[in-house]
Amino acid sequence: MSGEESRLDLTLKAGDRLPSLFRTRSSLVARGRKDVAAMFNDTKADTLAETRRRAEEGYCEAQIELAESYYLGKGIDPDHSEAAKWFRRAAEQGHPGAQFCLGRLYDLGHGVSKDQIEGTRWLGMAAEQGNSEAQFNLGFAYYVGEGVQKDEAQAAHWFREAADRNNPAGQHWLGLMYAHGPGVSQDRVEAYKWLHLAATNNRESEYRTLSHETRDMLGDKLTAEQLAYAQRMATDDIESHRTAKEIHEKLSEMLRPPLSGGSPGSP
């Protein structure tokens, strides 16, 4: 598998922000509700027009949503060049998610000329702002030397940054580095902990299975005391992240602005 194929796919999380009406379309059509489906299509066109209007006014979230629509072909013909254009507009305003997506477009050559140096530059901007997907991808770039000079210590640094933000790919690769030693001092207990976290957190079955298998092979090389300690560290980390997530969700609910709020350029 090539380095490019090993990277995570471009993650476009449009679904969480789209109205629930979009997510129910397939069930409506399946029931043969043509009248409702027609109404849905009108609503989708109106929503896309409103998104475009807000994007042109400079609203980052609208620019990203429009870029995702073009990239994925949601309600419009796919157009990677237009996707890159709108991701760039949001990225230039400093939005880390848009910077990550633009970086991956350069890595893949989708809608722009393939340029891994430019891609890594945008990934770096997003990574510095705490985007865990960008941190993982930047770590991988350093690990294999794509767009930057190969540097295993930097790879470990960015894998750890992603892992500390509960990114399962970052946790998996940090675990591998601790298991084998490049970029960090070899530590099989620490390796087991990160691989256990990756196996627990990863929702994609292929990666989850890989993390499970690697963790279990490593566990066979640990003493009973080492294994118990590594499992306890992983459990503590899971509980810590769960508590932090609950606090974040409560604060987000308390501080959520009214639907009509916001201003152009706000991430």
Short descriptors:
267 residues, Serine Threonine Protein Phosphatase 5, Tetratricopeptide repeat, 2 domains
Write structural notes for this entry:
It contains 14 helices and no strands. The chain is mainly alpha-helical and 267 residues long. The chain has 2 domains: 123 residues, Alpha Horseshoe (Serine Threonine Protein Phosphatase 5, Tetratricopeptide repeat), CATH 1.25.40.10; 91 residues. Helix 5 packs antiparallel against helix 6. The N terminus is likely disordered.
Based on the structure given, which CATH architecture of the largest domain is correct?
A: Alpha Horseshoe
Q: Gyration radius, to the nearest Å?
A: 21 Å
Number of domains: 2
Largest sheet: none
First and last CA, distance: 36 Å
Summarize model confidence as the mean pLDDT: 79
Oligomer: single chain
Report the sheet-strand fraction.
under 5%
Q: Got a strand count?
A: 0
Order of secondary-structure elements: HHHHHHHHHHHHHH
Q: Roughly how much helix do the residues carry, as a percent range? A: over 70%
Q: What is the name of the CATH class of the largest domain?
A: Mainly Alpha
Low-confidence stretches: 1-42, 259-263
The general outline is elongated
Our count of helices gives 14
The CATH superfamily of the largest domain bears the name Tetratricopeptide repeat domain
Name the structural class: mainly alpha
CATH topology of the largest domain: Serine Threonine Protein Phosphatase 5, Tetratricopeptide repeat
